[in-house]
Amino acid sequence: MKYKKLDMPFELVEVNILNASDPELEEISKERQLYFSLDEMKLIQEHFKKLGRNPTDVELETLAQSWSEHCSYKSSKPILRDTIFKVKAPQGLTVLSEDAGVIDFDEEHAYAIKMESHNHPSALDPYGGSATGVGGVLRDVLCMGAQPVALIDPLFFGPLDYPKDKLPEGIKSPNFLFRGVVKGIADYGNRVGIPTVSGMINFDESYTGNCLVNVGCIGILKKKNLLHSRVGKPGDLFVLTGGSTGRDGIHGVSFASAELEEDSETTSRPAVQLGDPIMKEPLIHACLEASEKGLLTGLKDLGGGGLSCVVTEMASAGGCGAEVELDKVPLREEGMAPWEIWVSESQERMMLSVDPKNLEKVLEIFRFWDVPAVVVGKAVPGNKVLVRYKGKVVYEMDLNFTTGSLEYKRPYEEYAGYNGPEEEVSEPENLNEVLLKVIGSSNIASKEWVIRQYDHVVRGNTALLPLQGKFETPGPGDSSIIRPVENSFKGLVLSTDVNPRMVKVDPYWGAASAVEENFRNIIAVGGMPNSMVDCLNFGNPEKPEIMGQFRAATEGMYFAADNFKVPFVSGNVSFYNESHAGAILPTPTILGVGIIEDVRKAVSMDIKGPGNILFLIGETDNELGGSEYFKVVHEKLGKVVPRVYPDKFKQKMDALLKAIDQGLVESVHDCAEGGFAVAIAEMLMSGGFGANVSIKDISGNATRADYKLFSESNGRWIVEVKPENIEKFLTLFENAAITKIGYTTDEKMLKIDDLINIDLETIYKTWKEPIYKAMGEQI
Amino acid sequence: MKPKICVMRIEGTNCEDETARAFRLVGADAEIVHLKQLIGDCSEERKRDLFDYDAMIFPGGFSAGDYVRAGAIWSARIQSKLKNKLNSFVKEGRVVGGICNGFQVLTTLDMLPGNVRAALSTNESAKFECRFVYLKPFGKSAITENLDHNEILSFPVAHMEGNLTFVPGKEDESLKALKENDQIIFRYVYPDGTPANRKYPINPNGSIDDIAGVSNLEGNVFGLMPHPERVLDSFNHFDWTRNPRKVGDGLITFKSLIEFIKKKL
After folding, report:
1. A765: which residues sit within 8 A by CB, 6+ positions away?
2. How far is the C-alpha of A387 from the C-alpha of B37, rounded, in Å?
3. Whose CA is closest to A155, among A578, A519, A587?
4. How far apart are CA B56 and CA B220, in angstroms?
5. How many residue contacts between A and B have a Cβ separation below 8 Å?
6. Where are the beta strands (DSSP E) in A46-143?
7. Contact between A193 and B234 using a beta-carbon 8 Å cutoff
């Protein structure tokens, strides 16, 4: 008999693993949705053999949480340690790798930043999944003692026009998922009053079965109020605050650590949590008030694994053991078994660690904010966690064992790299048509349909909006800016980007390009890159091909980050992004943070006036791998992914930042998706001025007109300079590749040599309409 | 003497910080006060008396989640716990204002426009709309009396329910009453001041007669959907990199409001 119901006044099951055969061990793991490998089950068996008893369901479930890929990073850790964890950087790091990274902002303040994936829940329940993703990342930032100031959401879906009759069984339409995810983020973020200022949306067939919802949050704190996710000392009380505990979100992390299957809808629907932003909003106030008054010794949010993980991790980080009384936990459902209470991922809960002498003061604060708060346990000396329910011990385990999951050195395919020439494609005759096709492709087209649903100006600190330019025709800004400290002009510059097709073609250079593109975005508005967080979304790590992608991508990220001396300060790995419809494109999403000393010096991407001179900084090479042009015009992936040249880049960066600081430039736009042609078109349409441009003399090895126009080579910006500033401007660029390409005009046309001649209205309409149309809306 | 401003909050209000800051920047003493503090449902030291303040502002947000209807729960709580006091507060001529969700609350409480019944219903686009709008100020309300009525202001809106509507069948007489009594205080216009004539998105919600804000008959109670508190600094404007301003339009607006309040002291 595999399971034995114990004689208790509640449901408690002893799981017979001591005498279980290998197939039985595997059966147990499968039947209880624990997602253990056989090796892991055997390790558990061995451990309990030493103890001379069987585990309870509570104990086994806890291990399933702690050892899940999602919580333990068992496949990724060995690689991350060799790559992006090693970046040496001068930034004042207060904390690396707790719930969020904390980095110096100014003398008194630090910023806290975190990005997380909420992919699988969103694939099943787009509205609830994305909303709780936002809630979770807000709590991660909050638990450092920080006031959240902005949200950033990179999203990835299948094509919006995916034919419904071709959808694989059990897969929801990308259109439905997109609408639901955006609404979920909007409803949660808007309600809790944190502006969603930045993001990206990418469409590709590969995300049809497994959309990606990455959610990032940045907060600001006084350094003296920094909180750690741990208990202070033995005797400190665990105070559980916020929402009640129900059956929602059970097995969330283990579900996130497996591939989606046809029947995921029925088997895993309970794994999606329910959000409540109106519990969260006072919870933020209450936690920050208690923190400001110095009444907490630690604070951590309840996320993956629920109570089991929060108690284990806070005790372990504080060098203590813990005792917990499960009956104290406020429940919203009757008849929950102890293991369900212990691992539920119900939302809007935070765990405080409080010195008993401050308990009354803390409880008063939470009463005032109408947020429930109850003592559920205490820290004790030693390293044992003991859990009681109705007076009976239901769990007793050593922290060393719970937190000591296996690490896997998974087999991986060696990264080959490619140093040959770019693929030759037929040269199109009508480049006007090509430009319109590229600028109207869903990846480049306006995301205004989304942006308008997000409140991006609440809190009154947004200093550069996601849409920039004229009232009638705003275009896509490179970065947004938040001014986080009242009466200071220093700003946080936020950008998020990755081109997954590049990563697919060449994971090393694709991932390095993602790092550089974020830096270019930050620099374009006048910011200095300061830190990054990542969300590494990949397929099943047990497949050598996927592990090879992962390894090469992290190496590419490390190369770029280390050379630029900008660290990754927090991160998240999401494997198993596969469904029966296939694996996703490898998607290392990067969120870059820059600092601008004075937000009043920031520059936007819209052309400011006629008669100004246009320059192209950087070199345009035959690098079309993963480009939008190859995708939408030639239906090819290409071969050569843009390279990153850190030394050259730094020279250009220094010069451009100086030029911006000295007020010498009117507008700047980064050349990325769609290359030079799209960047110049966007600048003109959003500014309402035309331009006469020549690309005959630009630097780089691209010779074909279409490659010059649409190559996505790194290290390039287009800059608009007033005639009277040119001399000063050019002296800054003595050591960098820069070409004067033309001038702006009053005539609302984009003219590039004899290649392109289109009116701005057509460009704007072509760019603006696609997503609205796909969502069935008129403009 | 510094005017004392009470910025009220409950769970889900989320614009109180920037609203209080707006008042501080124009020389007022602003305090964020939870409704519980005004009705005595808290510890002694947290308690506050409404009559210690010269003005009361209902800020924006999603009070109590706005799950029933925007402003419904907040106004119900005011109705049952604070309404009599608030009525005397207004009768004395003290200023009460509502921004966005606060406007929805004052409308639900029938404090705005007061003489006719109105409601803020769902935007014609049926979506949450976050965008900048242009506004022309009118009337002698607390917030607009001291504004230059020839200057066009630009604030952001961020709401789902901002479409001012009247009792069906009584639209014409209601609108006439508001016009005759100078109770329309902000209208949505094109950047050059031309009336929006309900053209989307110049008028972002379809509001009748392009109304963005109204006041009561006396002018000391006012409400508006757009958010002046979000454009206190010049760099909060969406187009500041191409149309530089000395200060944010919101700051100009709060200056005008505080002048009105000061005169009453």
Report:
1. none
2. 39
3. A587
4. 11
5. 118
6. 93-95, 101-104, 109-117
7. no
Provide the residue type at A146 as one letter: A
Report the distance separating Cα A438 and Cα A586, nearest Å. Answer: 23
pLDDT at A273: 58
CA A378 to chain centre: 34
Note whether B72 contacts A: Cβ–Cβ < 8 A.
Answer: no
Share of chain A above pLDDT 90, in %: 74
For residues A593 and A197, what is the distance between their CA atoms, to the nearest angstrom?
Answer: 13
Tokens (6 digits) for A630: 């190859």
**Is the separation of the CB atoms in A491 and A602 below 8 Å?**
yes
- β-bridge pairing A147-157 and A212-222: antiparallel
Q: How many CB atoms lie within 10 A of CB B77?
A: 18
Answer yes or no: A251 catalytic: no
- Sequential DSSP letters for B174-211: HHHHHHHTT-EEEEEE-TTS-B-TT-TTTSSS--GGGE
CA-to-CA distance for A610 and A185, rounded, in angstroms?
40
- Assess A364–B contact: CB distance below 8 Å, yes or no: yes
By CB neighbour count within 10 A (0-12 exposed, 13-18 middle, 19+ buried), where does B217 fall? middle
SS3 A325: strand
Q: What is the pLDDT of residues A693-717, one digit of tens each?
A: 999 999 999 999 999 999 999 999 9
Cα A173 from Cα A159, distance rounded (Å): 9
Neighbours of A28 (CB within 10 A): 20
CB spacing of B236 vs A460 below 8 angstroms:
yes
Q: Which of A248, A710, A712 is nearest to A520 (CA)?
A: A712
Is residue B119 helix, strand or coil? strand
Chain A stretch 452-471, residues whose beta carbon is closer than 8 A to a beta carbon of chain B? 452-465, 467-471
Distance CA A552, CA A629 (A): 25
Cα–Cα distance for residue pair A454/A188, rounded to 1 Å: 10
| Alpha-carbon gap, residue A343 to B48, rounded angstroms | 42
| Lookup: tokens for A572 | 């998240």
Q: What's the CA gap between A526 and A666, in Å, rounded?
A: 12
Question: B98 is in which domain, residue-wise?
Answer: 4-264
Is A318 buried (19+), middle (13-18) or exposed (0-12) by CB count in 10 A? buried
Do residue B241 and residue A603 have CB atoms under 8 angstroms apart?
yes
Quick check: A158 and A211 in contact, CB under 8 A? yes
Task: Report the predicted TM-score, pTM, of the whole model to 2 decimal places.
Answer: 0.94
| pLDDT at residue A37, as a whole number | 86
What residue of A is the nearest CA neighbor of B16?
Answer: A459
Total domain count, chain B: 1
**List of chain B residues whose C-beta atoms are within 8 Å of the C-beta of residue A276:** 65
The single residue listed with the structure tokens 């008028």 is B203
- Residue A586: is the preceding peptide bond cis (ω within 30°)? no
Cis before residue B201, ω within 30 degrees of 0?
yes
CA pair distance B68, B76, nearest whole angstrom? 11
Q: Which of residues 649-668 of A touch B (CB under 8 A)?
A: 667
| CB-CB under 8 Å, A457 with B156 | yes
Amino acid sitting at position A30: K
Is the Cβ of A608 closer than 8 Å to some Cβ of chain B? yes
Q: Name the packing angle between helices A277-292 and A174-192 (round to 10°).
A: 40
The CA distance from A65 to A92, in Å, is 33
Structure tokens belonging to residue A417 = 């790299």
Under 8 Å between Cβ of A171 and A242: no
Q: How far apart are CA A572 and CA A554, in angstroms?
A: 12
Who wins on pLDDT, A229 or B146? B146
Write out the two tokens for B85: 């006091």
Q: Which of A326, A324, A314 is nearest to A402 (CA)?
A: A314
Instruction: State yes or no: ipTM above 0.90.
Output: yes
CATH code of the domain in which B67 resides: 3.40.50.880
Residue A401 has pLDDT above 90, yes or no: no
